[in-house]
Known about the structure:
Layout: E1 23-24, E2 32-36, E3 39-42, E4 44-46, E5 49-56, E6 79-81, E7 88-89, E8 102-103, E9 108-114, E10 120-126, H1 144-148, E11 152-156, H2 161-165, H3 169-174, H4 183-198, E12 204-214, H5 216-226, E13 236-240, H6 261-271, H7 277-282, H8 285-295, H9 312-317, E14 326-331, H10 349-360, H11 364-370, H12 376-402, E15 407-412, H13 417-421, H14 432-436, H15 453-472, E16 491-495, E17 499-503, H16 509-522
Parallel strand pairs: 3-6, 7-8, 10-11, 10-12, 12-13, 13-14, 14-15, 15-16
Antiparallel strand pairs: 1-2, 2-3, 4-5, 5-9, 9-11, 16-17
Amino acid sequence: xxxxxxxxxxxxxxxxxxxxxxxxxxxxxxxxxxxxxxxxxxxxxxxxxxxxxxxxxxxxxxxxxxxxxxxxxxxxxxxxxxxxxxxxxxxxxxxxxxxxxxxxxxxxxxxxxxxxxxxxxxxxxxxxxxxxxxxxxxxxxxxxxxxxxxxxxxxxxxxxxxxxxxxxxxxxxxxxxxxxxxxxxxxxxxxxxxxxxxxxxxxxxxxxxxxxxxxxxxxxxxxxxxxxxxxxxxxxxxxxxxxxxxxxxxxxxxxxxxxxxxxxxxxxxxxxxxxxxxxxxxxxxxxxxxxxxxxxxxxxxxxxxxxxxxxxxxxxxxxxxxxxxxxxxxxxxxxxxxxxxxxxxxxxxxxxxxxxxxxxxxxxxxxxxxxxxxxxxxxxxxxxxxxxxxxxxxxxxxxxxxxxxxxxxxxxxxxxxxxxxxxxxxxxxxxxxxxxxxxxxxxxxxxxxxxxxxxxxxxxxxxxxxxxxxxxxxxxxxxxxxxxxxxxxxxxxxxxxxxxxxxxxxxxxxxxxxxxxxxxxxxxxxxxxxxxxxxxxxxxxxxxxx
Length: 546
């Protein structure tokens, strides 16, 4: 679902160059060696960047450690080769991915360190893929260009699907905390602990870490901002196309028509024939991956009262999130490449208007003014984009501004002929190669990107903004407009053919905020992509949350 378009073919790049903090072992071809707390590592050199691939950051979550929180890995002896990517976490096969090696033993990270790095800022990248697919090895998120700008880049794997996010009463019962689920999130937290303890050996500053991600990776960023166990492990956050949707509660859920997470887990296990804990643990990873699609299970984080104390919007409304600067945004064409998120189109304009009036009540006129019946397809695309991605990006930005942190909002609205001709203008994930400086590394199934001065300038601008945010918590770059903080004017940066500062983003924020607030007020209606012509009846109530 969300983020599937971002799965990219793997291109194993040889990267580069020794840093003064890296000891050179033997001949140049042997690569740089670091002496980290976790153990000695030998990487690869090329062009000013030292690269370390396939570094384990936790004990393998296999056997009895399956469906348990990530555990620290004891230091190894000798020099570990870190020249090849580690296995991707178990996931369904996809024509858009080339993860030749997949395993439950998959908790690896990769590091790109600049030459001469000392106390350099660090960016930890969390891949997208709907919490179902992806890995930290994709070519479009290669960290070399960012490292050339003076940033140490880390990308991570984390457990996916039912292996990473399943909650179940038997798993809760064996836990000393009486909770289950969120294993992929504990992986991410353990990876951040590893970075804190080891990144200094690579020239990075453990006190200057920015977490970043796109789609499910951006959701993970928001989850980490809300997770008490992650507090103090990062100092900035970048959320690209995140979604601050409601999450199932561990047990005794309050949402109407949405079971709690343990009930969902029981249903999943029953459909796979696992009636007790022994049978559950006896399931092979291959069976889990192959059979999960027929169960209807979809991975989400779990509100368990501990790893995630409460719903995300509640955490942010209470000011309990990590008090760090944030850069967040969304793309104009988010849903153009994700038609699975769209509801069935009404037969005609009259049906469309009738459904909206029945579902949105006193807000129907405002809804139809923004999402008219004159072009139903475009209105469906815009509704889901704004209600999920636009609302989430602005809500996150607004919340950080409210606690006195730097808060920067963007809208990526750049298209080019091959994408626009296929109806994919500014599609979900289209901003990634611009921000990473990897426009030359897009996979073959991606709409072909022209090699023009416009594309080059936009990529250099975004790379500069992202780099400066990681370095200083403020996105600015030479030769481009200053990016104004969000503030009362609702300022944002529009990325079209070039960056342009603007105010009042076109995302219908007030309308969607009112809808979410009314659903929260009644306490039993979830807020996610159940919007527009499939929205539940809107409760009558206040116009906002205040």
